[in-house]
């Protein structure tokens, strides 16, 4: 048989899934790994979806998505962060943020273009760059610096082939929120070297100690910045599969073109549910964020009491403790913890070399389970 696509074949399976495939075969496992809210979708949003189904809203929408939803997204960005995008020409509704990332990279990149990816980072960034014909270039961040991106380190990685920088803030897996000064530094680099900025802001509503900085709202950023967002994390709508892209018109137009030949449109029912999510006050989101904050404080304090150093996560719903004191590498730590105590975490190494020596723990889990997980982790560490 002729060989299959070499780029796809060279891409390893997600390092996250392996541990949860093992965990799914075990009993009494506490999973701290999957990045998914444990809340149900707010009822008013679900009701909007039910209404849509009952009244026959099961057709295609326009490729770019429902105009009303695009209007609400752009209005929310403007009111919340001061970012101005036109809903008619600069906004696209996607089937989750993952599709948005794929679309944008396919539009931005030509074969051989380089994309700078600060790591540790979400596991999809590098494969999506490669699938689009680009070359991911890793730039390390340090937990001693709160995983803040250093513009000088990024500058040293820029070559004549560099086309874009991809960044997530608040970040998966670290929970880090990039300081405004670091983001401003990236904008200056993008201006100096004529680069695009791709900003994954899916966790933008989930911040605790300070507000979220929208990259597209910074001076000089708008004409070269693509913002990715959605409803999965903030509104507990992972299974509805609805996200969005806001980008300069030329980028958005081509993203719609790829979208219309591949996904065609995001689900009509899901878009109407998202309209409801943005049409009403955000009390549901605020309540979920407050609950995550309470869990965050309990869980981080508990990790530190076990002897694990843990940076304070300022956003998302992940803790990223150092497990160096255990003497184990991150994959061995995660595997032994799973088999010994039935607690599933993700090795930090799957998120890039800078993640080694850490594990990712999601605290989007009921507080009693978090407390039980802490007891099991403590027992595991004492057994080493």
From TrEMBL:
<keyword id="KW-0032">Aminotransferase</keyword>
<protein>
    <recommendedName>
        <fullName>Aminotransferase</fullName>
        <ecNumber>2.6.1.-</ecNumber>
    </recommendedName>
</protein>
<dbReference type="InterPro" id="IPR015424">
    <property type="entry name" value="PyrdxlP-dep_Trfase"/>
</dbReference>
<dbReference type="GO" id="GO:0008483">
    <property type="term" value="F:transaminase activity"/>
</dbReference>
<dbReference type="InterPro" id="IPR050596">
    <property type="entry name" value="AspAT/PAT-like"/>
</dbReference>
<keyword id="KW-0663">Pyridoxal phosphate</keyword>
<dbReference type="InterPro" id="IPR004839">
    <property type="entry name" value="Aminotransferase_I/II_large"/>
</dbReference>
<dbReference type="InterPro" id="IPR004838">
    <property type="entry name" value="NHTrfase_class1_PyrdxlP-BS"/>
</dbReference>
<keyword id="KW-0808">Transferase</keyword>
<dbReference type="InterPro" id="IPR015422">
    <property type="entry name" value="PyrdxlP-dep_Trfase_small"/>
</dbReference>
<feature type="domain" description="Aminotransferase class I/classII large">
    <location>
        <begin position="28"/>
        <end position="375"/>
    </location>
</feature>
<dbReference type="Pfam" id="PF00155">
    <property type="entry name" value="Aminotran_1_2"/>
</dbReference>
<dbReference type="InterPro" id="IPR015421">
    <property type="entry name" value="PyrdxlP-dep_Trfase_major"/>
</dbReference>
<comment type="similarity">
    <text>Belongs to the class-I pyridoxal-phosphate-dependent aminotransferase family.</text>
</comment>
């Amino acid at each position: 048989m002729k060989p299959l696509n070499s780029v796809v074949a060279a891409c390893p399976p997600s390092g996250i899934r392996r541990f949860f495939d093992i965990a799914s075969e075990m009993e009494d496992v506490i999973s701290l790994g999957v990045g998914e809210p444990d809340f149900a979708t707010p009822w008013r949003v679900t009701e909007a979806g039910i209404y849509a189904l009952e009244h026959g809203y099961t057709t295609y929408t326009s490729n770019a998505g429902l105009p009303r939803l695009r209007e609400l997204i752009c209005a929310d960005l403007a009111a919340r962060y001061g970012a101005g995008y036109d809903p008619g020409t600069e906004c696209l509704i996607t089937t989750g943020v993952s599709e948005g990332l794929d679309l944008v990279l396919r539009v931005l990149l030509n074969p051989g273009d380089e994309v700078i990816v600060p790591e540790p980072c979400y596991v999809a960034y590098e494969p999506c760059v490669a699938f689009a014909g680009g070359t991911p270039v890793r730039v390390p961040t340090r937990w001693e610096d709160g995983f803040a991106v250093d513009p000088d380190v990024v500058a040293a990685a820029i070559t004549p082939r560099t086309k874009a920088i991809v960044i997530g803030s608040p970040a998966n897996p670290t929970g880090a929120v990039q300081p405004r000064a670091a983001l401003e530094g990236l904008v200056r680099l993008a201006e100096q070297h004529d680069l695009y900025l791709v900003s994954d802001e899916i966790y933008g509503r989930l911040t605790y100690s300070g507000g979220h900085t929208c990259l597209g709202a910074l001076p000089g950023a708008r004409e070269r910045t693509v913002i990715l967002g959605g409803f999965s994390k903030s509104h507990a709508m992972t299974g509805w599969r609805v996200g969005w892209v806001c980008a300069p018109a030329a980028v958005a137009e081509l993203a719609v073109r790829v979208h219309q030949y591949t996904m065609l449109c995001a689900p009509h029912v899901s878009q109407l549910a998202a309209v409801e999510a943005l049409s009403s006050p955000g009390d549901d989101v605020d309540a979920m964020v407050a609950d995550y904050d309470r869990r965050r404080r309990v869980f981080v304090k508990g990790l530190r009491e076990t002897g694990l150093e843990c940076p304070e996560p300022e956003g998302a719903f992940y803790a990223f403790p150092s497990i160096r004191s255990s003497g184990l590498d991150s994959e061995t730590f995660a595997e032994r913890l799973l088999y010994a105590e039935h607690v599933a975490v993700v090795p930090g190494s799957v998120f890039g070399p800078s993640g080694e020596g850490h594990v990712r723990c999601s605290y989007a889990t009921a507080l009693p389970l978090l407390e039980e997980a802490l007891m099991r982790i403590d027992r595991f560490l004492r057994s080493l």
